[in-house]
Amino acid sequence: MKIGLVTPYIYPLPGGVNAHVRYLYENLWARGHEVRIISSTHGPQKSSEGDVIRLGWGFSVPTNGSVGTLTISHRYRSLVRDVLERERFDLLHFHEPFVPFLSLMLLLESRCVNVATFHAYSGWSPSYEFGKRMLGGFAGRLHGRIAVSAAARHFINRYFPGDYKVIPNGVDLQRFQAVRPMPRWQDGTPNILFVGRLEERKGLLHLLKAYRVLQQQGRRCRLLVVGAGPQEREARRYIATRRLRGVELLGRVSDEDKARYFATADVYVSPATGQESFGIVLLEAMAAGAPIVCSDIHGYKGVVHRGQQALLVPPRDHRALVDAISALLDDPLLRARMGEAGRQRARQFSWENITAKVDDYYAFVIRRLASQRALPAGYHAAIPASPRPSGSEAVAIPVGVDRRYLSRALAPDGAPARDGSTTDRQE
């Protein structure tokens, strides 16, 4: 198929959704599809860069305790129509489809199969609460819906009820294999690592409070902080006024260096306060074999298992962070056991496995539309074959039998089949 991956955020700037899109792009190509990425322009980027198509102008706005992107253009509709006419996609895969206005305009003009992935989680969204009636028509144009976690599914289903397939985020396992730690921090002092955007919901100040208690207790340890963001000035002020020693604010780092910092960590800590739908950073820590201390929040509990790969603590509770970090620093065998359990679990989230699940879901949605005689006019690819029956259910097709007749005969409940394809129930 020809697939367009639509991200409302400015690709390839760092972020969880853009990373998800990048790995889907690479692995869908590896599975034989032709893929483009559709994003917006923000600064000096070219309107087209290889398989990246840019439409409109994006600028940053605060949203859900973080920073999002709003994309606008004075001639959006004509730009969108030109791209869709030129590219002739079989399927558009929208990531956060209701972020204005790139995804909404593409969804409005799309004449192909539309699938969406919902990444976000929040306790309550005023924009969805007050905009759900206006967005209901756009939601009705989606043929398939994916959520990255049960928490994300629960959140979006509150405003746009429907059938959601949970397919989690993935991790690039190779990036964390055979990685050398940072020599500078290999001096015998245990390293506590934080990786994330410096904003309130990531909880860095709660970790700094915990680190202060660890120092007051006389523990020998170091805190490495990777990331940047609006809370950096407040964090620096806290460090200076409390005279904290051994805190290294490292700013943004490359993907290669980030993998090396994970390899350097004796304990990885994610003290997020909430509104996390999944926790990609936990996958990265597990892939690197780092034992984890993290908040006991909905989005994280689907990634790690309590007491196996991580110690979970109540959010915003720096005393609980102190106890959990101390337990790991005091027990090298526990750290080794949890690190190995993390490596084993991370394999389930390889991007090859996750992309295969997404590809299978595409096929299911297309077969379902075909069985209902509802495939959009813009879909031109072959209809994916149904999964092969296994064991005693396998059906041998004799030589000379008309397969179109056989597919109709095997269609459940007399459902019509299109172009010789069998019809499917929910998979």
How large is the count of helical segments?
14
CATH-assigned fold name of the largest domain: Rossmann fold
* Rough outline: elongated
Order of helices and strands: EHEEEEHEHEHEHEEHEHEHEHEHEHHHH
Question: Which structural class do you get from the secondary structure elements?
Answer: alpha/beta
Question: Describe it for me?
Answer:
By secondary structure, the chain is an alpha/beta fold. The protein has two domains: 2-166, Glycogen Phosphorylase B (Rossmann fold); 173-348, Glycogen Phosphorylase B (Rossmann fold, 3-Layer(aba) Sandwich), CATH 3.40.50. Helices cover 37% and strands 18% of the residues. The protein has helices at residues 16-30, 76-87, 102-109, 126-139, 150-159, 204-216, 232-241, 255-264, 280-287, 298-301, 318-329, 332-346, 351-371, 403-410; strands at residues 2-6, 34-41, 48-49, 52-63, 66-72, 91-95, 113-118, 144-147, 165-166, 191-195, 222-226, 247-251, 267-270, 292-295, 310-313. Strands 1, 2, 3, 4, 5, 6, 7, 8 and 9 form a nine-stranded mixed beta sheet that branches. A six-stranded parallel beta sheet has the order 12-11-10-13-14-15, with helices on both faces. It is elongated and about 70 Å long.
Quick rundown:
This protein is an alpha/beta fold. It is built from 14 helices and 15 strands.
Characteristics of this structure?
single chain; 427 residues; alpha/beta; Rossmann fold; 2 domains; 9-stranded mixed sheet; 37% helix; disordered C terminus
